[in-house]
C-alpha cells in the first residue's frame, strides 16, 4: 500500500515537472535573448531577387524561423508520453502487485505487468516543406540539394493551356538543424515566352491560387505529419519579380560611295539599318531629304522592301537583324556646294501607339560643272563683187561640262547696211527676219552648224565686209561669244582707151526731134556690151565744150 501511494505521488510530481518544463523553457530563452517579450513564433518567409537580370536568372529563398517552437513541443510531448506510460505501468503494478506476488512470487509481479500492459510504440512526427515553382519560371534541378525531391505536376495556366510545373518537397531533419531557422535557396529562370514584353510586368515565382494545381491553397507551406495525418502549420504568399519592358530601338548608318562629285553625276548611297531592341519591328518607313532642291533620287527595290521614289517601306526587322539598303541620286547640273542627305527612319512601337525611329545623315561635296563653248565662222569666199551671194557657216561647239540650253545666235554686219539671214534647219527656231537662230540644247562635246547667206547689192562700193555672229546661252548668262568673218568686196571698174575715129553724123527728123544716125543706131540696136565708140564721142564733145568756153572767155 505504501508503494502504491509513493508511486502515485511520484507520477504527479513528474507530470508537474513536465508541464513546468514546457512553459519555462521558452520563457528562459526569452530572458536570455532579451530581444523580445514573447515566445518564438513559427514563420515562413519567401523572397526572390534577380541574379542576372539581363539573362532573366533569379533566386527564390525560403526561410523558416521559430523552429525551436517545434523542437520544444516535441520534447514536451515526449516527456508527457513517458510520464503517462510510467503512471499507467505503476498503477497497474500497484493494483495487481499483491495478487501477482501471491501467484508468481515477488519477481513475477513486474513480468506479469509488462505482459498484460505492453508499451505502445511512439508515432514519430515529420515536418515537410513544400513549394510549387510557378508556370512563369523554370528550375535548374541540377543545382538542387540531394535531400529535395522535384516532381512534375500538370496544371492549367492562366491562359487555360496545359503546361507543367515542378513541386519541390523536403523532409526536414529536425535533429540536424541546430539553429532556430532554416533557409533554402532555389535558382530559377524566367521562361522564354515571358521574357519579352512591350510593358512592365510582375510574375509570381511560386504557384499560388487561383492558378490550378494538385494542392489547394498557397504554393509554399510547412506540414506536420503524424502517422497518416497531415496538418498544415504555416504558409505564405508567393514573392513576385518585376520584368521591365523589353528594349526597343533602331539605328541607321548612311554612307556615300564618294566624298565629292561633279554636278549631274550619279552618287550611290548605302544605308545600314539595325533593330537594336528586343522586339520585332514591322512596317519600317524610310524617307530622304536633301539640302538642295531638284535632286532626283530613288531607292533600289529588294525583297520585302517596297520603293516609291525617295520613300520606301521595309516589311519587318527582327531583333538584332540588319539590312543593307541602297539609293542612287543624280544632283542637278546647276547645283554645287555641300550636299546634305538625311534619311529619316520611323516605325510604330510594338504594342503602343507611339513611334520610334532615328535619323542618319551624310555630306558630300558637289563641284559645279563648267559651262563654255566655242564659235567658229567662215565664209565660202574671200573676195566678192556686187550682186554676189556669200554663204557663211557658223559652228557652235559645247566645250564645257554642262548641257547648254536656249543657245541664241545673232548675225550682223559691222560696216554695211545689209543683213545676213539664217537658213532653216531642223531643231532650230528662227525669228521673223531670220537674223536670229534659237537652239534648244547642245550636249557637252557636241557641235551644231548653221548657215547664213547675204547678197551684195549692185551699188556696193569696194570695202572690207566684216560679218560677226554673237552666241549666248542660259548657262553662260550674259556672256557673249563672238566670231568674225571678213570678205573683200570689189566694185565693177570702167577702163577708158583714147582712139581717133572718123564719124559720120546723120540726122533724121522724127516729129518733134531728131537723132543722129549713130545715136539712133545705138538706141535702136541692142547693146553688145562694147561701148568704146560712144564713150569716145562723148569725150570729144565734152572737150569741145570746154575749149569753146575758154575761147569765149578770152575774147571778152
Automatic annotation (TrEMBL):
Give the highest taxon in the source lineage.
Bacteria
Ranges where the DUF11 domain occurs: 374-478
Name the keywords, alphabetized.
Membrane, Transmembrane, Transmembrane helix
Query: What transmembrane ranges does the database entry give?
Result: 534-552
Residue ranges, annotated region (Disordered): 85-120
What are the Basic and acidic residues biased-composition ranges? 109-120
NCBIfam families tied to this protein? B_ant_repeat
Protein name (record): DUF11 domain-containing protein
What is the species of this protein? Blautia wexlerae
Amino acid at each position: 500500500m505504501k508503494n502504491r501511494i509513493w508511486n502515485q505521488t511520484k507520477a504527479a510530481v513528474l507530470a508537474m515537472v513536465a508541464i513546468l518544463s514546457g512553459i519555462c523553457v521558452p520563457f528562459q530563452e526569452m530572458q536570455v535573448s532579451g530581444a523580445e517579450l514573447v515566445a518564438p513564433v513559427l514563420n515562413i518567409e519567401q523572397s526572390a531577387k534577380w541574379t542576372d537580370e539581363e539573362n532573366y536568372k533569379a533566386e527564390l529563398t525560403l526561410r523558416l524561423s521559430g523552429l525551436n517552437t517545434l523542437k520544444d513541443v516535441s520534447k514536451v510531448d515526449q516527456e508527457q508520453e513517458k510520464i503517462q506510460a510510467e503512471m499507467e505501468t505503476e498503477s497497474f503494478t500497484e493494483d495487481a502487485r499483491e495478487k501477482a506476488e501471491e501467484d508468481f512470487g515477488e519477481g513475477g509481479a513486474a513480468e506479469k505487468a509488462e505482459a498484460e500492459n505492453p508499451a505502445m510504440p511512439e508515432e514519430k512526427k515529420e515536418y515537410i516543406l513544400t513549394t510549387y515553382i510557378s508556370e512563369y519560371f523554370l528550375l535548374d534541378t541540377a543545382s538542387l540539394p540531394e535531400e529535395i525531391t522535384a516532381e512534375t505536376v500538370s496544371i492549367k495556366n492562366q491562359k487555360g493551356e496545359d503546361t507543367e510545373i515542378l513541386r519541390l518537397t523536403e523532409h526536414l531533419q529536425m535533429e540536424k538543424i541546430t539553429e532556430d531557422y532554416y533557409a533554402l535557396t532555389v535558382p530559377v529562370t524566367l521562361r522564354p515566352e515571358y521574357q519579352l514584353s512591350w510593358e512592365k510586368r510582375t510574375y509570381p515565382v511560386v504557384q499560388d491560387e487561383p492558378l490550378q494545381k494538385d494542392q489547394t491553397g498557397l504554393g509554399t507551406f510547412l506540414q506536420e505529419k503524424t502517422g497518416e495525418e497531415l496538418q498544415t502549420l504555416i504558409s505564405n504568399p508567393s514573392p513576385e519579380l518585376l520584368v521591365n519592358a523589353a528594349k526597343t530601338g533602331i539605328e541607321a548608318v548612311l554612307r556615300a560611295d564618294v566624298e565629292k562629285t561633279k554636278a549631274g553625276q550619279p552618287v550611290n548611297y548605302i544605308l545600314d539599318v539595325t533593330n537594336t531592341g528586343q522586339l520585332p519591328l514591322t512596317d519600317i518607313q524610310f524617307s530622304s531629304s536633301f539640302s538642295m532642291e531638284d535632286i532626283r533620287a530613288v531607292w533600289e527595290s529588294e525583297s520585302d522592301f517596297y520603293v516609291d521614289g525617295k520613300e520606301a517601306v521595309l516589311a519587318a526587322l527582327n531583333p538584332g537583324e540588319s539590312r543593307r539598303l541602297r539609293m542612287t541620286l543624280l544632283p542637278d547640273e546647276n547645283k554645287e556646294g555641300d550636299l546634305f542627305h538625311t534619311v529619316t527612319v520611323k516605325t510604330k512601337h510594338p504594342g503602343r501607339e507611339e513611334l520610334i525611329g532615328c535619323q542618319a545623315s551624310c555630306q558630300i561635296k558637289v563641284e559645279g560643272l563648267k559651262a563654255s563653248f566655242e564659235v567658229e565662222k567662215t565664209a565660202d569666199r574671200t573676195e566678192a563683187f556686187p550682186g554676189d551671194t556669200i554663204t557663211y557657216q557658223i559652228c557652235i561647239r559645247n566645250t564645257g561640262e554642262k548641257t547648254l540650253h536656249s543657245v541664241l545666235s545673232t548675225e550682223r554686219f559691222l560696216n554695211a547696211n545689209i543683213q545676213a539671214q539664217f537658213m532653216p534647219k531642223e531643231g532650230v527656231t528662227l525669228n521673223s527676219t531670220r537674223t536670229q537662230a534659237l537652239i534648244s540644247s547642245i550636249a557637252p562635246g557636241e557641235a551644231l552648224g548653221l548657215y547664213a547667206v547675204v547678197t551684195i547689192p549692185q551699188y556696193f562700193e569696194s570695202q572690207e565686209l566684216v560679218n560677226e555672229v554673237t552666241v549666248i546661252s542660259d548657262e553662260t548668262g550674259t556672256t557673249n561669244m563672238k566670231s568674225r568673218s571678213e570678205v573683200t568686196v570689189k566694185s565693177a571698174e570702167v577702163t577708158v582707151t583714147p582712139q581717133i575715129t572718123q564719124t559720120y553724123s546723120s540726122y533724121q527728123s522724127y516729129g518733134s526731134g531728131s537723132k543722129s544716125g549713130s545715136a539712133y543706131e545705138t538706141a535702136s540696136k541692142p547693146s553688145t556690151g562694147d561701148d568704146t565708140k560712144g564713150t569716145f564721142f562723148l569725150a570729144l564733145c565734152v572737150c569741145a565744150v570746154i575749149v569753146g568756153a575758154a575761147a569765149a572767155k578770152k575774147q571778152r
